[in-house]
Amino acid sequence: MIISGYRAVWIFAMFDLPTDTKKARKDYTYFRKNLLKDGFTMLQYSVYIRHCASEENADVHYKRITDFLPPDGEVRLLTITDKQFGRMRTFWGKMRKPTPPQPKQLELF
């Protein structure tokens, strides 16, 4: 089964969380570990992504994130289609790197 690039989506979780106290660092670690546990991958510092087969599947992960949001700081969630993700351009210095490949494993939930 091939997933449509217009139906499949990517969730971006972007956050700025305080780390100035021991409690804040603990909250940051708890949030980050839960993102990883929920299948997110670090795209760059404080930006994590997750591929979802549909918007309905993405809604499940949005709900999970709201369940472990930290008490302080800022968290932004953004959903884009797989086609939009494929148009991303990545630069290292002045050289362009290829866009990360789409995951090869189909999620079944």
Strand content: 25-35%
Which fold name is given in CATH as the topology? Alpha-Beta Plaits
DSSP E strands, number: 6
Using the coordinates above, name the CATH class: Alpha Beta
Count helical runs.
3
Number of domains: 1
Gross morphology is globular
Rg, Cα atoms, Å = 15 Å
- Helix/strand-derived category reads alpha+beta
Largest β sheet strand count, sense and barrel closure: 4 strands, antiparallel
Q: Provide the helix percentage.
A: 25-40%
Give the H and E element order: EHEEHEHEE
Strand arrangement, major sheet? 2-3-1-4
Rounded mean pLDDT is 89
Distance between the termini: 15 Å
CATH architecture: 2-Layer Sandwich
Low-confidence stretches: none
Please provide a written account of the structure.
The chain starts with 8 loop residues before the first strand and ends in a 12-residue tail after the last strand. Strands 2-3-1-4 form a four-stranded antiparallel β-sheet. It has a two-stranded antiparallel ribbon with strand order 5-6. It has a single domain, classed as Alpha-Beta Plaits (2-Layer Sandwich), CATH 3.30.70.240. It is built from three helices and six strands; from the N terminus they run E-H-E-E-H-E-H-E-E. The chain has helices at 22-37, 55-67, 82-86, and strands at residues 9-16, 41-44, 47-52, 74-81, 90-92, 95-97. It is α+β, with helices and mostly antiparallel strands.
